[in-house]
Amino acid sequence: MSRRRVNSLVIVFSATWLCAAGCEYPQSRAKLESTERWNRARAEIKVKLASDQLATGHIDDAATEITSAFRLDPSNPELLMLQARVFLARGDLAAAERLLTNAQAEGERQAEIEYLLGIIQEQRLRWSAALGHYLRASDVDPREVAYLVAIVQVMLQLGQAEDALMLLESYEPQFGWMGAYHATRAECREQLKDWEGAASAWRRVADANDDPGTRERLAMALYRAGDESEAIRQFERLIADTETQPPAPLRLALAQCLLDEGQPTAAQDQIGFVLREDPRNVRALQLVARVFAQQGQFERARQTAERALRFAPDSVSALELAATLAFRTGDHDRALALAERITQVADSPVARQILTRLSAATPAAK
């Protein structure tokens, strides 16, 4: 082969190789970018799965998804917050605090970090410190209702119900359409013993989200507001809608309403369900005693009250009921002994009345 021919072949080969090398670089880069996009998409799915797992209490499953997502896309901004929430759910407050404090120094997502730091302080029962974090979170992002709710609930823990309600209601134009706003308002009204206001607020929540917990709070507020008939309707609906055995407090709350409405037989039916499961339930025994008293069976009522007292000898309410029925059935010595026991542990109008009536009757007896 001639030198000229060889040189031509070398030139052609070199040109071909350079072209191939030049084309391969963009192709490799495109492949890398495609892989990164795919990993980010997979990480987003795992972040969503982790969030759902946390919401349903599957903490270990959430942690597994977070680890996988971090391998795929360590820059995902949701991962740090989710990891902090996993630490919180596991009760590892120190780890959560370290993670959040380090992130705070980097200037990331300040509002949510302050909020989670507030939760940490709240779990440590450091209410003032928690309030400070929640206030800073709300300052950073005043559009987030969760931060306002957290502020108000801590104020309630600190006994600042009136100020909490005033603050909450100042945000009504912004958040008044939300169930979380009215549920928090109801809790403020409850602490202030404004049961009509609490019932009104719980009804607003129930109209938007008819869950059993909300309806139970509504029913209790209605009962305490004196609307026993509507409270009975709500309690009966709750019990009818419960797929499993309704909890004892629900049946006993209904029984209390029925007694106050003068329906002792219907009340006794509800109490019976509870006593069959727990014959020593003190609250149920006290209500049965009231049923017997309402039916005029005072001696039977007294015996039942004494039985309740045996199971809860330090209960002021059990002592008061037993003392009242002892006095009603003419056992004044027992009534006196019980009333004096009550005065040693509590300032009880019931005990004072019994002692006053007994002392007034003593001169007449002489």
Describe the structure.
With 366 residues, the protein is an all-alpha fold. Among the domains are: 22-108, Serine Threonine Protein Phosphatase 5, Tetratricopeptide repeat (Alpha Horseshoe); 111-189, Serine Threonine Protein Phosphatase 5, Tetratricopeptide repeat, CATH 1.25.40.10. The chain has 20 helices and no strands. It has helices at 3-55, 59-72, 78-89, 93-105, 110-123, 127-140, 145-157, 161-170, 172-175, 179-191, 195-208, 212-224, 228-241, 248-260, 264-277, 282-294, 298-311, 316-328, 332-345, 349-365. Helix 3 runs antiparallel to helix 4 and helix 19 (332-345) packs antiparallel against helix 20 (349-365). The protein starts with a helix and ends with a helix. The mean pLDDT is 86.
Core attributes:
Serine Threonine Protein Phosphatase 5, Tetratricopeptide repeat; 20 helices; mainly alpha; 366 residues; 0% strand; elongated
Task: Quickly describe the structure.
By secondary structure, the protein is mostly helical. The chain is built from 20 helices and no strands. Helix 3 packs antiparallel against helix 4 and helix 5 (110-123) packs antiparallel against helix 6.
CATH class of the domain at 22-108: Mainly Alpha
State the share of residues found in helices, binned by percent. Answer: over 70%
Could you tell me the number of beta strands? 0
- State the secondary-structure class: mainly alpha
Measured by DSSP, the beta-strand proportion falls in under 5%
Q: Compute the gyration radius: what is it?
A: 34 Å
Coarse morphology: elongated
Q: Strand-and-helix sequence, N→C?
A: HHHHHHHHHHHHHHHHHHHH
Low-confidence region ranges:
none
Gap from first CA to last CA: 149 Å
- Main beta sheet: strand number and arrangement? none
CATH architecture of the domain at 22-108: Alpha Horseshoe
What would the CATH topology of the domain at 22-108 be?
Serine Threonine Protein Phosphatase 5, Tetratricopeptide repeat
User: Helix count, per DSSP?
Assistant: 20
